[in-house]
Amino acid sequence: MSMVKTVKVSKVFGTLQVLKEVSLTVEQREVVCIIGPSGAGKSTFLRSLNRLERIDNGQIYIEDKLLFDCVNGMNTVKMSLHERNQALLEVGMVFQNFNLFPHKTVIENVSLAPIHVKKLSPAKAREKAREIIERVGLGDKADAYPSQLSGGQQQRVAIARALAMEPKIMLFDEPTSALDPELVGEVLGVMKNLAQAGMTMLVVTHEMGFAREVADKVVFMFEGAILEVGQPSAMFSRPQNDRTRQFLQSVL
Rounded to whole angstroms, what are the CA distances from 168 to 84, 90, 139, 150, 194? Predict the structure, then answer.
């Protein structure tokens, strides 16, 4: 079963077409890394999958269920808002910036959504939150505030917060780009562990080492379009597209 599938997804901002008929399938337990220069449409594509950006044309499936079939900005899929929102709860997302509530502790940040969205009791939500905080290596920081954490620790809390909703798919939008270089490894380590545990992941990243080591499939985007898709071994050693080759030569 495919976990995410897009068919000819397009998006226009004003006169700029930022997505050009993007078609991609992510299978269950697959890790897909999207690479490409700034302005290629990578983040916009990722944000379109959970309705943070509304597409103009194309189809978006989550777990083989058609959620969006858009024509000129209008979604033609007849589905209740509740049903669509329930499907989108299967998609967790981690952003470049951590977006933690500064006045709440780590465990409060992680347990908040399960209490208010999934209607767990506070006690049960905190119990599950503590397990996930341990999982990302921050068990001793459960009662700390974000200001008391490093950037890498804050991003790991953001990952824990997404995991607390028990998603089946995790989207990562350049999760290490706001971090100092020495903190990148701890976040990538958590992501590697998730991949090894079988989490389906779609990752926009500039970390080519991570893409080479962890991805099942690498996607190269340029000017709003997917120009090349392949296994890391082929993509990094024998890119077929000239633009892919130029990009990789500039970053490797």
Answer: 15, 5, 23, 28, 11
Rg (C-alpha) for the chain, rounded Å, is: 18
Identify the band that residue 101 occupies on the pLDDT scale cut at 50, 70 and 90.
Answer: very high
Three-class DSSP category at 75 = strand
pLDDT digits 0-9 by tens, 154-193:
999 999 999 999 999 999 999 999 999 999 999 999 999 9
**Alpha-carbon gap, residue 72 to 211, rounded angstroms:** 34
Residue type at position 113: A
Query: In the block, which residue shows the tokens 């989207």?
Result: 171
pTM of the model: 0.95
Classify residue 123 as exposed, middle or buried by CB count within 10 Å of its CB (0-12, 13-18, 19+): exposed
Alpha-helix residue ranges (DSSP H) falling in 166-218: 181-196, 208-214
Sign of the CA dihedral running 144, 148, 152, 158? positive
CA distances from residue 16 to 112, 223, 251 in whole angstroms, order as listed: 38, 10, 26
Token couple for 72: 């000129």
Per-residue pLDDT tens digits for 52-68: 999 999 999 999 999 99
Helix (H, G, I), strand (E, B) or coil at 68: strand
CA angle 245, 251, 252 (to 5 degrees): 85
Side-chain-side CA neighbours of residue 15 (13 Å): 0
Tell the residue number behind the tokens 């901002």, with chain if given: 13
Contacts of 241 (CB under 8 A, 6+ apart): 220, 227, 228
Q: How far apart are CA 45 and CA 37, in angstroms?
A: 14
